[in-house]
């Protein structure tokens, strides 16, 4: 009785499937789409730095930018968020200094009546020498807040004087080209901030 050495049709299908699966396993998956890709958030502004110098959005071209709007007289949320951002960057720097060097954190005051360049500069430096503190005229600040989709309003007067400022609690991450990438989870702590930076910064 003669036996054929040719594989059966079933065997041919199995071999083809195995080769196809092997090919799929070796293929690199496409990078994830940034959550804020294409969003109309961010853009040109002219504000004032801690030394009274004009600072523009374009000055940060080529850098990843973390942007947070708040105010220095904020009793809790703003300093907490900024501390977590600074700590997250410090954690990232410990893991990959080159990656961290590509990022500039920016704090923009929504309370220019009290947050002078010196005040905002001292506030930013209290978290890290890398944080850029910005303020400006009321018109400049309002225009920047609108461009970055940040809602804000002066709150009620407080006992003993002063007032609060109600505002959106958002920490944005922008790419080197100024396009929005994602929001950073400062409310979840420094580790979460560092992890999200590692995910998007390259």
Summarize the SSE layout with pairings.
Elements: H1 9-26, E1 46-48, E2 54-56, E3 64-70, H2 77-95, H3 97-100, E4 103-109, H4 117-125, E5 132-134, H5 138-147, E6 152-157, E7 163-167, E8 171-174, E9 180-183, H6 190-200
Parallel strand pairs: 3-4, 4-5
Antiparallel strand pairs: 1-2, 3-8, 6-7, 8-9
Helix pairs in contact: 2-6
Secondary-structure-derived class: alpha/beta
Spatial order of the strands forming the largest sheet: 5-4-3-8-9
Mean pLDDT: 89
Count of DSSP-assigned helices = 6
Could you say what the CATH topology is called?
A: Glutaredoxin
Radius of gyration: 25 Å
Uncertain stretches: 1-26
Strands, count: 9
Largest sheet: 5 strands, mixed
Strand content: 15-25%
CATH architecture: 3-Layer(aba) Sandwich
Terminal-residue CA separation: 66 Å
- The geometry reads as globular
Q: What's the order of the H and E elements?
A: HEEEHHEHEHEEEEH
Helix amount, in percent? 25-40%
Whole-number tally of structural domains: 1
By CATH reckoning, the class would read Alpha Beta
